[in-house]
Amino acid sequence: MLNKASFNSSIGKLYYIWLSELKVPEVVFLSNIVKSFENYLEELRIKYTDLSFRDKKSDEIENSIIGYLNGNLKGLDLKPHFLTGTVFEKKIWLATLEIPFGNVLSYKEIAEKAGHPGAWRAAGTALNHNPVLMVVPCHRVIKSSGAIGFFGAGEGIKALLLELEHRLISV
DNA sequence: TGCATGGCGCCGG
DNA sequence: ACCGGCGCCATGC
Q: In chain A, at which end, N or C, are there fewer CB atoms within 10 A of the end residue's CB?
């Protein structure tokens, strides 16, 4: 069963979709952009209504995210569940999932790790399609030059998350 | 099917 | 150090 909800956080209002009826909460979608939330719901053929649904899983998810943003946790311990994406995109997302808290890789390195060494340009596009902000830590992928690179959720948020993680890891 | 489009990389100037 | 130009490859139309 798919459920959806939203809540306020330090990086703005977050919208998410999760699977209930599982032992561990699985996050299908997470974003701060309402438009991409609407688009994703449309892709899943779910109506944009009833945002107030809650259960134990949604509490777990929100607490985990809030804790991460407060710097209480070393990473976001949430499991993604991909209902969309091509084989290539999923490979990129899974490779990105393995980047440890506080670390970064370049788009090129991610493409190599995913088994597509020449596809760094397409890797960027695939990361732009990441349905689960922060759960798949696409903010940990930057340019080879060291520049921060683009971020669909806002480059300010990308910088914020990287600084947050860097600060905690260097304590 | 071909072609334009992207959260990029690399090299010259 | 900072461009512009060209190359790269998976998608979508």
A: C
* Residues A49 and A96 reside in one and the same domain: no
Strand C: protein residues, Cβ closer than 7 A: A 86-89, 116, 118-122, 125-126
**Residues of chain A scoring pLDDT < 70:** 48-52, 171
Q: Which residues pair with A30 in a beta bridge?
A: A16, A132
Global pTM reads 0.95
Q: Which domain holds residue A39?
A: 2-80
pLDDT digits 0-9 by tens, A26-67: 999 999 999 999 999 999 987 766 566 788 899 999 999 999
Write phi, then psi, for A114 (nearest 5 degrees). Answer: -80, -5
Burial class (CB in 10 A: 0-12, 13-18, 19+), A101: middle
Q: Is A55 in a helix, a strand, or coil?
A: coil
Distance, angstroms, CA A145 to C1' B11? 13
Single residue among A80, A106, A135 that ends a domain in this structure: A80
